[in-house]
Amino acid sequence: MESIVFGIGITALTGALATVAGAAEDTESNIGSQGDPNSQVQLAPQMGYLHRIFNKAVAGEPPAYGLWCALGAGLAWAFMAMQINAVLAIVLGCVLAVFVQGVYATTAYVGRTASLKKFGQPVYVDILKSMTTVTMAHAFVAIFCTVTLCYLMNAALGHPFPLPLLGLLWGIALGAAGSAVGNPYYGKERQYQNQKFGAGVPIAQSGNIVRYAEAGERNSLDNGFFTAKLGGPASGVCFGLIVFLELWRTVIFERISAGWGAIIVGILIILIFTVIDRYIEVWARKTYGPYAAPVKEASS
Amino acid sequence: MTAVAAKPAAGGAMNPTAMAIGLVLMLVIIGACWKIAPGLGLMALIGMIIGGVLIGFGTHFVPVGGAPAAMGQAPGIATGVPMLAAGAGLAGLFGGAWAAEQGLVVAFVTGAVGGGLMMAITCMMVSFIYVFGMGIPAASGKVKVDPITGDTQPEFKSQGTEGHGLPFTSFVGGVIGGLLAGGGGTLIYLMLLDLYKATLPGMMNATESQIMPIAISAAGIFAVGMFLVNAVLTAYNITGTIEGPHDPKFKRWPRAVVASAVASALCGFVAILIVVM
Amino acid sequence: MTVKIEVVAGGIPHTKIMVAGLLASLVCLYLSYLNVVTKTEMFSFFGGLAVVAALLWGSHTIKVLCSYGIGTGVPSAGMIAFGSGVMGMLLATKFGIAAPIVALVLAAIIGLIIGYLSNDVLNMKIPTMVKSLTELAIVGAFTLMGFAVLMTGSFTFANLMSGSVTFLGQVMPSFQVSFIGGSLIATAFMLGAIAIQHPFNACLGPGWTQDRMLILTAECGFLSMIVAAFMSFALITSGSALISLIVALVGWGYTYSEYMKLGKRDAAAWLDSKPIPDVEEH
After folding, report:
1. Complex-level ipTM
2. I need a labelling partner for B258 at 20 to 30 A (CA). Which of A5, A98, B217, C239 fits?
3. Dist CA C37 CA A285 (whole Å)
4. Inter-chain touch C68–B9, beta carbons under 8 Å
5. Averaged pLDDT score across all residues of chain A
6. In this structure, are residues C159 and C104 in contact, taking their beta carbons and an 8 Å threshold?
């Protein structure tokens, strides 16, 4: 019984850490315009819209976070093997991982922008200095939380995988969750604030991103400021739910009928989310209504 | 995922000769494995081929819209196919590896449910952000009527786009994809783990508990590597984006299944050779 | 929606880069054998240099392959390279001193078959697909082997599997504290997979220049080497790890400043706190 109570405590802690990690990850990638919305930042100068937005195309978010978290975890593992205290080892590992992230961010911005010479897009040194440091700060929060939750899974809950492999797995999952949920909110809602609300961006408008702010010219910190209010927390909830429910169903129900308990609970959770998703979809169809009158088909 | 999404080079056509050559190649590899490592090795190889095929087939179900999805210009999840499938499959692998000592069937199903759970939560949150964050209802661009719910789609498509959000069929496709990918990745891991647990102690002159870290670690990294190979091959097959099981591109799955089977047989055979040679 | 990728001709031909990268990484891997000859671990840094050489070749291969537009992101090419390379590399380590050559052959076979599958079974019909995936698998195997040498000082199976741990002043053999047992290979996998695709991903566009991309590759290689050297402190003697770290830091500092210079050369303008320039009609 005691071990289950301990397990529930650790599960709750990892869920909370995952939520923070997801929120920080999405904000970081939005400030850096990483992931899919990057294509618009890249496209804008080619359409004649020069801008002052950071363009940090290291890789897609999942592989990039796979590296940062595997690196943080690998370094933390190595420091722990050198008999350094676990907390200090994780912090040191994450600091070095964030250093790598910062260097990749600068080379990506300079490289992408220099290749746009034909369209007259300049490299802004002040963007490089101010945005990189902010993304590094957010990345540190995300990496530190992820590596810590991996450490808890390994050391406290007894997962067989070593720390670096767990970092790789959960880093990719973190990037996948963060990019899936956070990208549309940044890509459609923030980059294209000049377009109609409640509709997709017409393909003809691609590249016409918003480049001016309430006062002056928009930079990526304004974008992080905006998406941190909904896209970031939503990504955090997504990743937090994934980690929490995955651990919760295992820790509590694993012992029931030799593992089948956890499976049945997992299937039930999937069904619950299916119902919620269907409810959201129908709610949207009813409340927002169609864009055009339904096309009458001959058969109906 | 990145700015690169140039013209789709691959068509929808099948190439029967190449597929036959691929299958013959797979049989040759299985034959070689039967010659070198009958019994446990052969069983592991067949398990890994099944796992690889599950990953390759499952990835077709995952609704991914790529860069246009982030602008609400195309339906699906706004990220890359291989990496989203990897996210789901590796979350499944995490659960499956944890349940490894409870037997093959339980661990396999646990891994599958882990992958499905990850996709269910992600797809639900994607719908949430589209509807409550951006006020956009879901609409498919490829079909007129959602095959599962019967909802009509075209009138919910906003002007100048190919659809947006996740219609219910895409959601179900995502969950099925997660289930298959999670199960497939776990199966590869379990097969390698069993093989390494049985053979490594003799090779390294150590007890089973001593070599466990190596067996787990090597099986884990091979599972990740084979997972990525299969997921990327499938992504090549569907040229980066797919709406779900109702998308016409879904009909290309036989090609990816053959490719995944051969690639898994090859990689699995090499992974087996490490311990039997 | 799509960013057009133009195939930029000129510069050093690909064949030349391929041969140079292949030879340089092979030679560097074999130079690390000095560790065994001299019974030290001082020459582990040659593993890192092998990584840089292999990556230089690999990033140019990715450029050749991705110029055709493969339908999915550039990063996926790095993933498939390392996914197929890791198998060949680990099997090759069982062959003792022949390991690098065996890794070359094995990875080439795996890459060839995967390339055939993509090109013909999946009907991608990209002229360089088979050749490129073969090269990428070899690069993946060499890079992983280089990281293994850098972190453990050796490319033999036994040394990758077992390490030693100092507990209460006593040195005890341990399978857990090792390149494979601690899954440092997972970190090496991702380090290489990002470093190989980043240079082309970061430099693509109409203003792509070969020298800038290649110096960025070297920078990514040395950067990966810095962190790998930190990890090697756990597995080899501190002095040897320190040598690797210093080599990596010097190489990184030089290539990073060179890259920034080339970025400045190629950029339309290099501005500090300036507004968006006025151009044409917008």
Report:
1. 0.92
2. B217
3. 74
4. yes
5. 90
6. no
- The three-state secondary structure class of C154 is coil
Q: CA torsion C256→C260→C266→C271, rounded to 10°? A: 160
Smallest Cβ distance to A59: which of C189, C198, C277? C198
Amino acid at A117: K
**H-helix or E-strand spanning residue A21:** helix A2-31
> Which residues, including other chains, have CB under 8 Å from residue C164's CB and lie 6 or more apart?
C171, C172, C173, C174, C177
Residue A95 lies in a domain: yes
What six digits make up the tokens of A252? 């509590």
**A231 and A268 fall within a common domain:** no
CA distance readout (Å), B261 to B52, B109, B221, B256, B265: 6, 21, 19, 8, 6
**Are residues A191 and A33 in contact, defined by beta-carbon separation less than 8 angstroms?**
no
Nearest of A142, A108, A116, A135 to residue A32 by alpha carbon: A135
Which residues of chain B have a CB within 8 Å of the CB of A202? Answer: 73, 158-161
Q: Does C75 touch chain B (CB under 8 A)?
A: yes
Looking at CA atoms only, how far is residue B15 from chain A in angstroms? 32
Domain extent, residue A281, equals 259-286
Q: What is the CA B166 to chain-centroid distance, rounded?
A: 19
**Nearest chain B Cα distance for residue C250, angstroms:** 31
CA distance C224 to B162: 41
Is any Cβ of chain B less than 8 angstroms from the Cβ of A298? no
Q: How far apart are CA C143 and CA C31, in angstroms?
A: 15
- Name residue A217's beta-bridge partners: A212
Strands, E, within C81-154: which ranges?
none
Distance (Å) of CA B200 to CA B271, C101, C148, C206: 13, 25, 20, 52
What does the DSSP 8-state code read for residue A188? Answer: I
C188 pLDDT more than 60:
yes
**Every domain of chain C and the residues it spans:** 21-155+184-266
Considering the domain boundaries, does residue A97 fall inside one? yes
pLDDT digits (tens, 9 = 90+) for B116-131: 999 999 999 999 999 9
Are A90 and A174 found together in one domain? yes
CA atoms within 13 A on the CB side of C184: 35
The parts of chain A modelled with pLDDT lower than 70 are 1, 294-300
Band of residue C4 on the pLDDT scale cut at 50, 70, 90: very low
Q: What is the pLDDT of residue C169?
A: 64
- Whether residues A108 and A221 share a domain: the answer is yes
Instruction: Check if the beta carbon of residue A137 is closer than 8 Å to that of residue C229.
Output: no
C110, C121, C176 ranked by CB distance to B22: nearest: C121
Our count of domains for chain A comes to 2
pLDDT in tens, B47-104: 999 999 999 999 999 998 888 888 888 888 988 888 888 889 999 999 999 888 888 9
**What are the pLDDT digits (tens) for C110-147?**
999 998 888 888 887 888 888 989 999 999 999 999 99
Residue B133 DSSP code: I
Closest residue to C87, CB basis, from B8, B232, B270: B270
The answer to whether B238 touches B81, Cβ cutoff 8 Å, is yes
